[in-house]
Amino acid sequence: MQSETNKKIKKIIIVPGNFFVSRNFFSSPLIENLQQISVKEKITIYIAGVESNPISSKYFKSLKNYFEGNYNMIFIPLMGSPKSPISRFIWYLKNNFLHKTATYRFNEINNFITHKRYKEITKLKIKDKFLWKTDIWPKYLGFPFPKSKLILKIILRFMSAALTSRNPQIHKHLKEIKPDLLLLGDIQSPVSFDYVSVAKKLNIKIAGNVRTWDHLTKNGPVVPGLDEYWVWNPIMRTELEIFHKVSKNKIFEVGSPQFDYYFFNKTNEKNLTDYFNIKNPESEFFLDDDAKLIFFATNRSHRGIGEESIIHHICENIALGKYNQKKINLILRSHPYDSDFNERFKEFNDYPFVRLFKSPDLSEFNPDDFREDMIKVSLLLKRSKLVICGQSTFAIDSSCTNTPVINISFDGDIEVDSKLSVKNRYNVDHYQKLTSMDGTTIIEDFRSLDNEINSYLINPELKSLGRDKIKNNFAGFFNKLSSERITERIIKLIE
After folding, report:
1. pTM score
2. CATH architecture of 10-80+167-256+480-494
3. d(Cα 468, Cα 313) in Å, to the nearest integer?
4. Where are the beta strands (DSSP E) in 158-264?
5. Is the pLDDT of residue 438 over 80?
6. pLDDT digits (tens, 9 = 90+) for 79-91
7. Res 79: pLDDT
8. Helix and strand tally (H, E) in the chain?
9. Which CATH superfamily is domain 260-475 in?
């Protein structure tokens, strides 16, 4: 047995792949856990960039300084497109057309509800196609024989082949570093196929994380042949087994670090009072300690159609005292990808009981900003008496704090095609599973909205059993934080 002093230094490369995974990994308690095991277990941790495209040299330098200066983690650039014209063409073909084709065919074969919805939206003449690009799936992606399992198999083999994954940067990193473990943050992204192809040749152990709870029935096939597949919850485990044909002994439920702050003992009510300086009008969030707080999680403009009119309705009712509470404060929270949030909702600053809460800018990933944001969200949800949102992950967040949830399922006073309506957004696989647990209330008009706001403010225990089901089945919270479970899996894999 090796002595502690002679213990071989292990190496891990983490490839987040996008901002959301980066936020969950490096702005949550997980980063402290990683730092602790790096010292205790003698592990060198490498982080391969933070997004799916190459980043600027200035931005790269700042992130490199952050991770290496604060956490002893070595920051390396994420792969970029190859330099030779032929290699670049193959890379583009694979990472764009072929990946989308594989996704379309996989979803078509499995007959997902979400996929059917996307096909219906694609038929419409939408003015701004860019806004809707994630919801549009042209029919030609499935030509010919869209339900052919053989064609899909051929495409996936081509995507996993060494020829199509020939990227000097990836090969260089893996060959020079020789990691004991490659950890992928998004096992459905094209970049994961590239890394896995090279890693397998070098006999590197690979673990992969499903980015979020809705992706297994929406974002196409996962990278095959990993040593471990990590999911949030038992529902995702089942989806991975049934639809993606992954062996059950390779699947581990690790939760998601983004929910850890809801169960983290440092984020209690005392912190909330201290953090937001309740009664201090100069604070970021001026909250009256004797007021009921409503938290409204907005969406991007094309996905939250009519939100402005709905919020206006709520504000007018609060101002007129039409809800059964003397004092109500309203927080408006932005979607991370909504760059127009402040402009869209600036009129509501005129109401003294309203505060706008913008999430950090996703154009730059600042780990400290995102950490502070996650803490703020957890504290506000614990303080809130009610959450209002559309079809959103916030229904899970709210259930973690046992905060009642109203799901908006109408477009306010806006008239739109039924296929583009907010109501139609609930016609997706993952959200139907959530609403079946009866932990939220779906409302379809202003009158129902007012009734439900009053009901929940009077009796917050309504549907608490359903919220508990959502928490256990979707957040994947058990007796350990997600950060702890991920750390345990890493140690197990590199032993």
Report:
1. 0.92
2. 3-Layer(aba) Sandwich (3.40)
3. 30
4. 181-184, 205-209, 228-231, 251-253
5. yes
6. 666 677 877 787 7
7. 62
8. 20, 13
9. Glycogen Phosphorylase B; (3.40.50.2000)
